[in-house]
Design a protein that fits this description.
The structure holds three protein chains of three kinds.
Chain A: H1 9-17, E1 28-29, E2 33-38, E3 41-46, E4 50-52, E5 55-58, E6 64-68, E7 71-78, H2 79-100, H3 106-119, E8 126-134, E9 137-143, E10 149-151, E11 154-157, H4 161-171, H5 178-195, E12 203-209, E13 215-221, H6 264-267
Chain B: H1 3-7, E1 35-40, E2 45-50, E3 53-55, E4 58-61, E5 67-71, E6 74-80, H2 82-103, H3 109-122, E7 130-137, E8 143-148, E9 154-157, E10 159-163, H4 166-176, H5 200-217, E11 224-231, E12 234-241
Antiparallel strand pairs in B: 1-2, 1-10, 2-11, 3-4, 5-6, 6-7, 7-8, 8-9, 11-12
Chain C: E1 17-18, E2 22-27, E3 30-35, E4 39-41, E5 44-47, E6 53-57, E7 60-67, H1 68-89, H2 95-108, E8 115-123, E9 127-133, E10 140-142, E11 144-147, H3 155-161, H4 168-185, E12 193-199, E13 202-208, H5 210-213
Classes of the chains: A alpha+beta, B alpha+beta, C alpha+beta.
Chain lengths: 271, 245, 219
């Protein structure tokens, strides 16, 4: 059966409502992601912190996903959903572009994503910024989990989106250069990293420019390198308790006895 | 959380909620994050805390000191709901003042601990939402750390972490201060590593590593670390910056 | 919510909504659609430059209000159906047909949709036409229509000031004043005023910035 499995729905319903069971928490990318257009391209950026509640689950996770070589997307919301929905659309877009024998378009990716997300009525918790270049030019879209889309020159999403949009609204201007756009995105992400507890660690960035290969800058900025620890926590040999000791032979050694061929003594049994 | 509230919970695994009327009431409590840590040495005690104050995903302040030198060589910190923490320390300071007027002598650390128990239990039905740690020197001049639950249950310990990242720091302390799960290397893993008092420098190193590590993995911990050290010569303060993300 | 009592305030948790001010007005030469540009998620303005005027065919457009996701999905389906109609029948679909498709979808899925739509179009035979498809999935034709959360503030103004067969400039001024007042009094509406003019000359887009439409921002 294709699609999602709902076979445990009734059981989980019972566990949550009747048995007083706490459901497991999915890893959410309490995130800051931004996107910004420039003269003939578009840039997206993200922080690299993933959280489960107040605990940092991953200090350097990748929130920038490739949909096609020149269409990338930044994801916020439920980590698994952003990852899987991106992979699904990546496959379908590739098949689509092969059957049409054309380069994939950003609007196609956006339309496929929004139709998928709308179908699941917000249950698939993916909030995405989709960007890329195609034969029709550079494009930048945002998609909400319920399936609505927005177009813009600059945008931010995730728990740090308010900190980021403050920077974008303050510094954005029409016809930015590529370097200006990259700098603006990095500043916006840093605003999220430092002012939103759900965001942190490094800045990842992806630049898509007309007529050029997309450039992924993993760890474009690392403003949160950990200082050296004060002490050394290497344990001396013998620190671990020895409770039991047993020695095994890994290979069982079988003694071989050589019997000379044609020896009458060996064959002679009835003495 | 009571069982009727559970049935009103919609999760990503179950969308159905019972259609009972929901009671809306003012919630007098808040979680302001942060973590504190106290360690007792042979002739000193330290009480440390980060200086970040949060609510939800926002930072209210990057420098709001919560470890207090309350006088009489006593250090006090109440972590959790910061308004309650501030209130508790204020009431304690006032009580200490009256103790001086009435008795004309310094309050000993075990007396302070018992006083705090009564202050906390007085609000048994509407508690201070805090985990409290008191540090000082006992009558013999040895370091003392007392830790309290929100309603006054307390215990003297060698070390204790409280607040948001307590569960991250406490196992580290068990291992590094009380040498739990450590054998004497000389004995090739057959005899427990003998306990010994750590020096002040070692303790400060441990505290700094505990907080920088908690900052890495807990989003509500960071910005700055204040360490208050109490010795027979009085109270000394140190400050170290922590990561701000 | 059941099929009889439709919960107007019903939105899925965290859903993006367009607490909107939208209108469409017929006039001498055709029809004009107008809208504000604010999209909100609770009290947060998720987009301040939204385009709520959506093209279905060259000469048929709609104004969307309610859930952004729902109205976009429905408009996409209607556009697809109209394109299909055009290729199958070799002629352009009418404004009424467009509104009828909206009506059908909104009626059949009324339990899961939060969509209030104004559908307007121009064709040589019938000139400018305006249809509304409100929440329950009914369809009504009007000379002019207002909708969205901001519309409640301008019912009186519009009733007093609308005249049939206005000139283009009169209609634009009428709509600019109406929408500016809807935006003025409705917290969920804001941003710029967008307009789309549908006449025999084709499509014309207009945009008015707050400095221009808002009297209080002028010196």
């Amino acid at each position: 059966m294709p699609g999602l499995s709902f076979e445990n729905f009734q059981r989980n319903e019972y566990l949550v409502n009747q048995a007083g069971f706490k459901p497991p928490r999915a890893t959410s990318t309490g995130t800051t992601i931004v996107g910004c257009r420039f003269k003939d391209g578009v840039v997206i950026a993200a922080d690299t912190r993933a959280t489960t509640g107040p605990i940092v689950a991953d200090k350097n996770c990748e929130k920038l996903h490739r949909i096609s070589p020149k269409i990338w997307c930044a994801g916020a919301g439920t980590a698994a959903d952003t990852e899987m929905v991106t992979q699904l659309i990546q496959s379908n877009l590739e098949l689509h572009s092969m059957s049409l024998n054309r380069e994939p378009r950003v609007v196609s990716a956006m339309q496929m994503l929004k139709q998928h997300l709308f179908k699941y009525q917000g249950q698939v918790g993916a909030y995405l910024i989709v960007a890329g270049v195609d034969p029709t030019g550079p494009h930048l879209f945002s998609i909400q989990a319920h399936g609505s889309t927005d177009i813009g020159y600059y945008m931010s999403l995730g728990s740090g989106s308010l900190a980021a949009i403050a920077v974008l609204e303050r510094d954005w201007k029409q016809d930015l250069s590529k370097d200006e756009a990259m700098k603006l995105c990095a500043t916006a992400i840093q605003a999220g990293i430092f002012n939103d507890l759900g965001s942190g660690s490094n800045v990842d960035m992806c630049v898509m420019e007309m007529g050029k290969d997309a450039q992924l800058y993993r760890s474009f900025m690392t403003p949160n390198v950990r200082e050296k620890k004060q002490r050394n926590y290497k344990f001396a040999r013998g620190t671990t308790a020895v409770l039991r000791q047993s020695v095994f032979d890994i290979v069982e050694v079988v003694k071989e006895e050589e019997i000379p061929v044609g020896s009458s003594d060996a064959m002679d049994v009835d003495h | 959380m009571c069982s009727t509230q559970k049935s009103l919970m919609a999760t990503e695994y179950s969308t159905e909620v019972r259609m009972e009327p929901i009671e809306h009431r003012f919630n007098p409590y808040q979680d302001n994050g942060g973590t504190i840590l106290g360690i007792a040495g042979e002739d000193f005690a330290v009480l440390a805390g980060d200086t970040r104050q949060t609510v939800g995903y926002s930072i209210d302040s990057r420098y709001e000191p919560k470890v207090h030198d309350v006088g009489d060589n006593l250090l006090l910190s109440a972590n959790g709901f910061s308004a309650d923490g501030v209130e508790l320390v204020k009431v304690f300071e006032s009580q200490l003042k009256w103790y001086h007027f009435d008795n004309n002598k310094k309050m000993l650390v075990h007396s302070a601990a018992r006083l705090i128990q009564h202050m906390l239990y007085k609000k048994r039905m509407f508690p201070y939402y805090v985990s409290t740690i008191l540090a000082g020197l006992d009558e013999e001049g040895k370091g003392a750390v007392y830790s309290f639950d929100p309603v006054g249950s307390y215990e003297r310990e060698q070390c204790r972490a409280g607040g948001a990242a307590a569960s991250l720091i406490m196992p580290f302390l068990d291992n590094q201060v009380n040498f739990k799960h450590q054998m004497d290397p000389e004995s090739k893993g057959t005899k427990r590593r003998p306990l010994k008092y750590l020096s002040l420098d070692e303790v400060i190193e441990l505290v700094r590593d505990a907080f920088s590590s908690a900052t890495e993995r807990h989003i509500e911990v960071g910005d700055g670390l204040q360490i208050l050290i109490v010795t027979k010569d009085g109270v000394r303060k140190e400050y170290y910056p922590l990561k701000r993300d | 919510m059941d099929s009889i009592n439709v919960d107007v305030g019903h939105l899925k948790k965290g859903e993006i909504s367009m607490g909107t001010s939208i209108m469409a007005v017929t006039f001498k030469d055709g029809v004009i659609l107008g809208a504000d540009s604010r999209t909100t998620s609770g009290s947060y303005v998720a987009n301040r430059v939204t385009d709520k005027l959506t093209e279905l065919q060259d000469n048929i457009w709609c104004c969307r209000s309610g859930s952004a996701a729902d109205t976009q999905a429905v408009a996409d389906i209607v556009r697809y159906q109209l394109d299909l109609f055009k290729t199958m029948n070799g002629r352009s679909p009418s404004t009424r047909l467009s509104a009828s498709i909206f009506q059908e979808i909104c009626y059949n899925n009324k339990d899961s949709l939060t969509a209030g739509i104004i559908c307007a179009g121009y064709d040589k035979g019938k000139g400018g036409q305006v249809f509304t498809v409100p929440l329950g999935g009914s369809m009504h034709q009007h000379e002019y229509a207002i909708s969205g959360s901001g519309s409640v503030f301008i019912y009186g103004y519009c009733k007093e000031n609308y005249k049939p067969d206005m000139t283009k400039q009169e209609t634009i001024d009428f709509m600019k004043t109406s929408l500016s007042q809807a935006i003025r009094w409705d917290g969920s509406s804001g941003g710029v005023i967008r307009m789309v003019l549908l006449t025999a000359d084709g499509v014309e887009r207009l945009i008015f910035y707050p400095e221009e439409y808002n009297e209080e921002l002028k010196d």
